[in-house]
Amino acid sequence: MVFYGFQKTTLIDYPGAIASLLFTGGCNFRCPYCYNPELVETHTVAQYSGEEIITHLKKQKGKIEAVCISGGEPLLYREGLLDFINEVKNLNMKVKLDTNGSLPEWLKKANVDYIAMDIKTSLQKYPQFLNPCENLTEMMSKIRESIDYIINSNIDYEFRTTVVPGLVTESDIEYIATNLIPNAKKYYLNQFRPQITLDESLGNLRPYSNDKLQEMAEICKNLNIDCRVRSGYSTEGNQHKF
Ligand code: SF4
């Protein structure tokens, strides 16, 4: 298991806990708004081995309460990731996993305490986010499988959508709330922040106003979903830099 980014302390990534934040390299998606294209496309030299991280975390016992694993798509590391998670759990630290939901078979095996799953937009619009080699029908079914697993598990979770004008509309949010995550416990609408993006043309895209995002959140609340707007930060697409 190798990591391409490591933030030793974060107060904002694990709800209610002091955490460390790790980034894996590589992703099977190609979200145009992805904030860390270098992790998705050009990661070549691992910066930290799993052993190094565990050695560091052992020294932090009592100070660091949780570890957040983001990407890229961490579940692409399969057994390597599962083993690493178990090692962290053996240190009595909680684990939060960020995922795009494309690998439910590995998600189900991950011994984590919190799952944050991206829902990019309406399922039929996923081709705009996928690597062209991915099969849409298969992917739609995997996304649904991940959602069902998360909602029916006893694991704490959140779903989240980065609301990028053009890629995510009000009717997409309504579709997600109605068809994908009815009665979900927590759903965040993350504000899009134009900066370094995988598709450079999005760098000049004007985000929706916060009022517009609040209106979208209201649509979800009216459908009995606890939906909040998050305008400050997100590990989805990783606005963190390391
Ligand atoms: S936003 Fe997430 S799922 Fe999309 S390309 Fe970037 S790392 Fe992958």
Short summary:
Helices cover 29% and strands 22% of the residues. The protein has 242 residues and is of the alpha/beta class.
The counted number of beta strands is 10
Mean pLDDT: 92
Tell me the structural class: alpha/beta
Residues in helix, %: 25-40%
Please give the radius of gyration in angstroms: 17 Å
Write down the overall geometry: globular
The kinds of small molecule bound in this structure are: iron/sulfur cluster
Strand order of the largest sheet: 2-3-5-6-7-8-9-10
The biggest sheet amounts to: 8 strands, mixed
- Topology as H/E string? EEEHEHEHEHEHEHEHE
Instruction: Give the DSSP E fraction (strand runs of 2 or more residues).
Output: 15-25%
Count the DSSP helices.
7
Low-confidence stretches: 236-242
Distance between the ends: 18 Å
Using brief descriptors, characterize the structure shown:
29% helix, binds iron/sulfur cluster, single chain, disordered C terminus, 242 residues, two-stranded antiparallel sheet, eight-stranded mixed beta sheet, alpha/beta, 10 strands
